[in-house]
Fold:
Amino acid sequence: MTGFINSLGVVLYATLVYTTPLLYAALGSCFSEVSGVVNIGIEGMMTAGAFTGTVVAWATGSPWIGFLCGGLAGALFGALHALATVKLGADQTIAGTAINMLGPGIVIMISKVMFNSTDTIPLTATQKIPKLFTGLFDTTTVFGRFMDNVFATYASTYLVFIAVVVVWFVFYKTRFGLRLRACGEHPQACETLGINVIGMRLGCVTISGFLAGLGGACVTMAISTQFRPISIVGQGFIAIAAVIFGKFRPQGALIGCLLFGFCSGLKVVLGGSSGVNMQLLSMIPYVVTVITLVLFVGRSHVPSANGKPYIKSK
Structure:
């Protein structure tokens, strides 16, 4: 029984840790998709945030400045995607694919110039995102170890769950949220009511990039200690799958991210204690993603104007 409780605590801890970056990215995807802009460039924006956050935290010694700059780097790529798709009318899928190639390409080139390597310098303990409630529980008892595993986690994890509540409130309890959802459903009708559809979409895609950048920063500033070219591999697409699973709602995206985070956490736990091939275990999150898309993509209510370029009437 003691072993089961300990293992359960480790799985829950790993689930929360791996859910965090996915959830930041998924919330960002909700902003973009609900406003009517397809953003598959989440992966590239996460990569930009992961590199920038790590380098700034290493240079300044402050994890919070690094974390914020990671979000700003993602916002920059989000603004680039918004400019191409909303203002210039570029195909949204192609533009997102370009962001996914441009983001890693640029940051790996900069990393090579700065560090003579595609890897950055590892962060020290004080440069990483700090953990909260460490030492609060008595780890000499089974219950204390369980509570320590679950609650003594990174501050970014607590922030992202607060962000889910904030985003839900913005979407469904504010005038901005009403206009945001309307822009994704009937942009022409919004225009007749005086709503700036172009401005709304530009802002939402930029917000999408900011949140994705925060998610990327979480990967390299909490889960690992440095940026590598393989730091962000598939997380952006898994986050998009979670949004589809959650029917483009923040509360639904939360459930989807917890599912995928559990799969990633289970992979880590089983990889250290079972004799199962590690390559097979690494497939778990991606297999679950494919199954989820097959089962739920047809049931999700996609915003009516999602993916359709909007041309302002003259």
Q: What stands out?
A: The two ends are 70 Å apart (CA to CA). Residues 119 and 228 are 5 Å apart (CA to CA). The chain has one domain: 2-233.
